[in-house]
């Protein structure tokens, strides 16, 4: 175990945390709009739910009601979740990869090994940070139209009674009203989402290694330029996003405090009644 830890690339942990926080800071408004669109039926079933159907319209409505600060509703758990997720993911992934390479950084692993290590890293990370993602989703779904006169007949979840304003309050209310099970809402579809990171890293490693060995004629351990990193990482991210996006819709709906579903199959059944899985892919 000591030898295993000695080979861990700690810089990947720091880089992952930093990158996760920075990306959350820059992209949170779009993430906020994405979550709201993912759960929006556009049918008026939920009285407090806006009927907006586009990203720009959703962001405009938030700014109109809350000001520019409203674009960062739920930012704190997003920053914590993104930073810890990417930091832990890189940490476990690089640890497993170094362990398999037995100290030889120039050793190229198989596609199945990359896929397995990425999947294992994703499962471990999700098990740790899933509660943070539940809180993030619920803070993002604090709608501007919710009032004190909100009809009790529309309340399907006790935690909705208290209009949470902070990460701590949301976590406290979630634990009090829903217990341990509430902290892990959306965990099952999240496991399917692990394939996102696995697919992304599999393609990334394949692109990087093929580029280094076949095109540049050098070792797989050679570092890439900033442009090369950006090209391979963005391409692999796009491929993974297109393949796995449906799970994000399912997870967001299961974590939504305004609706109650009887598991993953119930979410899928109701989704197919409304739109295809990719209808709201922006």
From TrEMBL:
Major place of residence: membrane
Protein topology in the membrane: Multi-pass membrane protein
Family of the protein in this entry: Belongs to the mitochondrial carrier (TC 2.A.29) family.
Example of a GO MF term: nucleotide transmembrane transporter activity
Keywords, sorted A to Z: Membrane, Repeat, Transmembrane, Transmembrane helix, Transport
Compartment(s) where it occurs, according to its Swiss-Prot or TrEMBL record: Membrane
Entry superkingdom: Eukaryota
UniProt cross-references to Pfam families, sorted A to Z: Mito_carr
Keyword Repeat: yes
Keyword tRNA processing: no
SUPFAM superfamilies (UniProt xref): Mitochondrial carrier (SSF103506)
Record's GO cellular component terms: membrane
The protein's name in its UniProt record: Uncharacterized protein
Source lineage: Eukaryota, Metazoa, Spiralia, Lophotrochozoa, Platyhelminthes
